[in-house]
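Re: weekly structure request thread

Next one in the queue (567 aa):
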Amino acid sequence: MSKLIIGLALLMLTTMLRAQSIEVTASVDKNPVMVDESFILSVVANGEVDKGAFDSSFLMKDFVVGRTSISSQTKMVNFDTTRTTSWSTILIPKNKGRFTIPSFDIDGSLTKPIEVLVIPVSANTSSNGRDLYITTDVDVEQAYLQQQIRYTVKLHLGKDLQRGSLSSPTLENADIRQIGKDKEYNDVVDGRRYRIIERSFAIIAQQSGTFTIEGPLFEGEVADNSRQSFGFFNRSKAVNRVGPSQSITVLPIPSNYDQHWLPSDFVQLDDEWQGNTHEYIAGEPITRTITLTAIGVVEEQLPQITSTYPDSVKTYPDQAETTTVEKDENLIAQRKESIAIIPSQAGELVIPEVRIPWFNTITKKTEYAVLAEKTLNILPATTQPSSAIPLSPSIQAAPEIKPQQPMPSDVNNQSMSVPQYWIWLTASLLLLWIITLLLWWKHVSLLKSASKKTNNSLVRNTQSEQELWKSLEKALNKNTALDTQRYLHLWLGSYIQDKNAPLEQSLKIIDDQQLSEAVNNLLACRYSKNQSEWQSKDLHQILRKLRKNGTIQKQIKHNLSPLYPSA
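Done, posted below.
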């Protein structure tokens, strides 16, 4: 026990002696300093200390704290070893006034407090102007919740920039993103020419109240002309600047506003219809694309577009597409919703209007983006398209050219005067002309044959029920949605004994819930952009059962009560 007590006493004594042997000092490289000007805080400890003993987090209340560099040095003179550890931290004041850098505790040794005087920028600006500084600006000092605030930063450079980086401004509970590209130009400020780099940000606050936007931090190196350079190597010095802070007030959503919150200064609704005609055919899909555009918001803020349609149409919506782009230093959000509309009957189809509420940040009133009511002319369905094969061109006989008969006295002289190569050339041209006539005749025959086959294949409504069923089953076995829809339309018309009836009318007459659901599944797979693989098994079984029961007329006849019921 006595040995343990002696050991502890020696340990405590060693620690006290070690603490007394450590000397710690703190200093700054400049005092006073300007509001946005950086200075370096140096803490030096003479002795063996832990490199993680320095903590600068409590300085963040009054200063922007930059990176901290650590260096250590060991010297030995006449077997006497000296160790030195240094910490250098970049500090930038947030406001003007007098601030105290408190003592630092380094392994039990304390530094002396340092009082720093922070003066406004204009109080220490020389007549030649400053070498580098930052200005900030906001387009509005008061904005509504989730309204875009345009924040502009200008970096003024009076010397050549070697390298540098500019951070983004900071604001809690806000979406901050750069908009547009950096602008670079020259300007004269207070009689001195500066190279100005301008950058814009969009800030969207997600919480109401009064807040301060902390300015961005610039870290870089500029050419130092005060030091002598050697050869091709130019001297440079590190510079750090912070932009001035900006205070803003974020207003909450008005208490009397009960719609989807969409603050903007411009909102528009547009729609596009497939094709350039105003007439459509019953049973054929019509694609409508509605686009919602809003300025000063992001895509997450856009509401869902609610559009209604009459009961006489079937609708198949696609997944919405959203995006956010930048234009003219503004955020522009868009939402596109496409929907396939299939009218079931001919006549006028009235599409109701679409209304999207939004809050106008300029007039501070609720407004509506509106798509007006639209009327479409739906034509009856056609079962036999017209042939697109042109008629065979008629061959006109070449006019008969009667050569002039030479005089008998000139025949011998003429045959003797014609060169030999002209005879062979004439024979060759005659042979080519005969071959051309033969090929043209064959081509016309093929056109007539193809036209005849096409016309026979287009007359689909004259096929028997057995032929249509065979074609339908072939399409079902192959899981081909397009051919299945085509032959299903014709077979159902034959089934109800009305070959000109559209698909919707046939389904209504048959009145089979399972069949209607299976057909709707087929149409949804066909007309949706995100097409899924369609399976024909369920529809095939339903149609087999339907065909086994006979035509619709037989079923009606079978369900009639007898003419002379038994007593």
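The first strand starts at residue 23 and ends at 28. The CA atoms of residues 421 and 427 lie 10 Å apart.
Next request, please.
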